Amino acid sequence: MDYTTNAAPLAVTQPVSLELIDASGAATPIDAELQYDSTDPYAVTTVFMTGNSRVRWTFGRDLLTQGLYEPSGDGDVHVWPCLDAQGHAVVIIELCSPDGEALIQAKTGDLSSFVDRMNKAVKPGSESQHVNVDAAIAAILTAETA
C-alpha cells in the first residue's frame, strides 16, 4: 500500500563497500547498498550482500544523519563517528539482534554523500508531507479487523 501524498515517490540508492569488524579488530570487506524511499520517509535501509543472500536492516534516517557527527542510537542500532587504524574518518554502525551483533565500518565520505542526496530528495523536517496519515490509519484498522 502506498501511504504517500506525492504522485512520484523519490528514491535514493548507493552501493557502498563496508567492512565487518570482528572481535579481534580484523576487517572483512562486505558489499552493501544504502536505500532511501520517500514512501517510508523516516527510514533508511542497508542491504548487505552476503554470498547469494541479502540481509536488510532498516532504521531511522535521523540515526544515520546524527551518527555522522556524534554517537547516536538506542536499542538495536548505534552509529558513531570514529577513526580507522590509518587515521581516516569512518562511521561505525553497530547492529544487534537476538541472533548476534555486527560491527560495521563505513567511509564517512560515502555515508555523507548518501545523506546529502537523501536530504535533497526529502528535506529534513518535511517527512510528514510524504505520508498520507489517513491512508495509514485506514490500513491499520483494516488489518485489525481482518
Structure report:
This protein is of the alpha+beta class. It is built from 3 helices and 7 strands; from the N terminus they run ββββαβββαα. It has a 7-stranded antiparallel β-sheet. A hairpin with a 5-residue loop joins β1 and β2. The N terminus is likely disordered.
Could you provide a short overview of the structure?
This protein has 146 residues and is of the alpha+beta class. It has 3 helices and 7 strands, in the order ββββαβββαα. Strand 1 and strand 2 form a beta hairpin.
The portion of residues assigned to helices is: 10-25%
Order of helices and strands: EEEEHEEEHH
Low-confidence stretches: 1-7
Main β-sheet, in a few words?
Answer: 7 strands, antiparallel
Class from secondary-structure proportions: alpha+beta
Mean pLDDT: 87
Rg calc: 17 Å
User: How many strands?
Assistant: 7
Q: Looking at the structure, what is the overall shape?
A: globular
Beta-strand fraction estimate: 35-45%
What gap, in angstroms, lies between the N and C termini?
Answer: 16 Å
Offer a few descriptive terms.
single chain, 146 residues, alpha+beta, 3 helices, globular, disordered N terminus
What's the structural blueprint in terms of helices and strands?
Elements: E1 11-21, E2 27-37, E3 43-50, E4 53-60, H1 61-67, E5 77-83, E6 89-97, E7 100-107, H2 108-121, H3 133-145
Antiparallel strand pairs: 1-2, 1-7, 2-3, 3-4, 5-6, 6-7
